[in-house]
Write a structure and sequence with these properties.
The chain has 19 helices and twelve strands. By secondary structure, the protein is an alpha+beta fold. Among the domains are: about 90 residues, Chitinase A, domain 3 (Roll); about 110 residues, no CATH class. The strands form four sheets. It has a four-stranded antiparallel sheet with strand order 4-3-6-5, sandwiched between helices. A three-stranded antiparallel sheet has the order 2-1-12. A hairpin with a 2-residue loop joins β1 and β2. The longest helix is centred in the middle third of the chain and has 32 residues. The protein is globular. Keywords: Isomerase. This is Peptidyl-prolyl cis-trans isomerase. GO terms for molecular function: isomerase activity.
């Protein structure tokens, strides 16, 4: 066992012992039988909920969120009571357990104890005050790039600098940069130059790059007040850079030896078979993230005659001896947090290859986390319980409503926003079902924790960033239209002194 694993095992064991000693009874906002709504879950589900943005009264929004969470836990409890199971939900629950383990190991081994000094913040602040316009010369070999750089330094114009090396010149571009520059290499290349200076040739993926800074503009006057107002953004930017650098080190030292080897010949052949099955002309409004969405079921479950026996071919071989077939790899990609670009076939191919590499990276981290006992990590257990109740409740709700039908024809001139007869019927059914379920299960609200909890701002942009590796967030649907349920919940709130 490596020294790294020994240290992590010790830390996990120590954390488990410490957490058990410090907090034998977990803190909760509400409890439905043995299901807890922890303060952390309540915060996550409240903050990343688009339905609460329209409720201006924060106290009312908190009650709406808690009501929906209690209903979710009740549906999950009823599903367990009735012995309801759903294989699809179980696959999603297992996937989110994997993600929780991956994220927790990444936090423990990569993100822990990263700090930013005042000197680093000041240095980054000086960059934030600048806007830089630069011209770039991309050459196919280093000698041509050296010639271009030398000619520019001697005062030659752009045309004169590239004379004689045009056959080795890939591109000449011009761009203006303002802080923050996401490309770290580009930031280092231009922000260390003064106006008129030329960089030495830099090796990049496409060739060799020479930069010429044309103009440096000061966007604001430096001051202590301005520095303090920018501090959160400066700190966040530097932390992300440091985390990225540490993750690169972690990847090289811990993951490379665990990565599966892809048979790209087999996988590319399978990819070409599925392309005719994909609609590349969908409107952007059809997908929540532009043209990015997950792999659809019909692609994952394509019949054998379409894939021409490729489905059973081995696509990935792991160092442990384990193998994935093409079908297994498609299934793993479907359930994982991977989005594909459906703009055109070429972009889809690229996103597919990128996602396969990311999947194998995640698989390596997951296997390491599993070996280190992360299934029992308190944070992982808490998050897994949240997703368990979420997916179980969603599947059980769909099961309950799937048989409901109405004989009434749809109204042609129904006002926009009004419910259809079937929607009304479903609401009435859920109103009665949840009200009845409330009497069959023990529901306790921790008034002290609920009263002291400070509601953070609901923010969709924060949600997308927090769940950056996920295609969905565990949203809550307000139940304010359920009149009987609302009366029972209000009575429950009064019982626990919640106004």
């Amino acid at each position: 066992m490596t020294e790294f694993k020994k240290i992590l095992r010790y830390l996990i064991f120590a954390l488990l012992i410490f957490s058990c000693q410090k907090n034998e009874t977990p803190q909760f906002v509400a409890r439905v039988d043995d299901q807890l709504v922890t303060p952390q879950e309540f915060a996550d589900r409240y903050r990343f909920n688009p339905y609460l943005t329209g409720i201006k009264n924060q106290s009312e929004a908190r009650k709406v969120a808690l009501s929906a969470l209690i209903a979710e836990k009740l549906l999950a409890a009823e599903a367990n009571r009735q012995g309801f199971t759903n294989p699809e939900s179980e696959r999603w629950i297992e996937e989110h357990l994997r993600e929780a383990m991956i994220e927790q190991l990444r936090r423990d081994s990569v993100e822990k104890e990263i700090t930013v000094t005042d000197e680093e913040l000041r240095r980054e602040y000086r960059k934030a005050l600048k806007k830089i316009r630069a011209k770039f010369y991309l050459c196919s070999d280093s000698l041509a790039a050296v010639q271009v750089a030398q000619r520019l330094k001697s005062g030659a114009s752009g045309q004169q600098a590239v004379a004689g090396v045009r056959q080795k010149l890939i591109a000449v571009t011009q761009k203006e940069y303002a802080w923050p520059v996401e490309n770290e290499h580009m930031e280092k290349l231009i922000y260390n130059l003064h106006e008129g200076e030329i960089s030495p040739p830099q090796r990049v993926r496409e060739g060799f790059l020479v930069a010429q800074v044309q103009k440096v503009t000061t966007v604001s006057k430096p001051s202590q007040q301005d520095f303090e107002s920018r501090l959160p953004a400066l700190r966040d930017h530097l932390l992300r850079r440091k985390i990225k650098a540490r993750y690169t080190h972690f990847y090289r030292k811990q993951l490379v030896g665990r990565l599966g080897a892809v048979d790209w010949t087999v996988l590319s052949a399978a990819l070409e078979k599925i392309l005719p099955e994909i609609d590349f002309h969908q409107p952007k409004s059809a997908t929540p993230f532009g043209q990015m969405k997950s792999l659809p079921d019909r692609i994952v479950e394509l019949p054998e005659n379409v894939l021409k026996n490729l489905a059973r071919r081995v696509a990935v071989r792991f160092p442990s001896g384990k193998q994935w077939t093409v079908r297994q790899l498609f299934s793993r990609i479907k359930y994982g947090p991977y989005a594909f670009n459906y703009s055109d076939p070429e972009k889809f191919r690229k996103s597919f290859r990128d996602n396969v590499r990311l999947l194998l990276e995640h698989q390596a981290i997951y296997e390491m986390a599993d070996e280190l006992g992360y299934r029992e990590n308190p944070q992982v257990v808490r998050e897994a319980a949240m997703w368990n109740s979420y997916y179980t409740a969603q599947a059980f709700r769909y099961h309950l409503l799937s048989d409901l039908k109405t004989t009434e024809p749809p109204e042609k001139n129904r006002p926009e926003g009004d419910l259809t007869p079937l929607q009304e019927k479903r609401l009435q059914f859920m109103d009665e079902f949840l009200t009845s379920a409330l009497s069959r299960h023990e529901v306790i609200i921790n008034q002290k924790v609920f009263a002291e909890w400070t509601a953070p701002k609901t923010d969709m942009l924060v949600m997308k960033r927090h769940f950056a590796h996920r295609l969905i967030a565990p949203r809550l649907q307000p139940l304010t239209r359920l009149t009987r349920w609302q009366k029972q919940i209000d009575r429950l709130y009064r019982k626990y002194g919640i106004g």
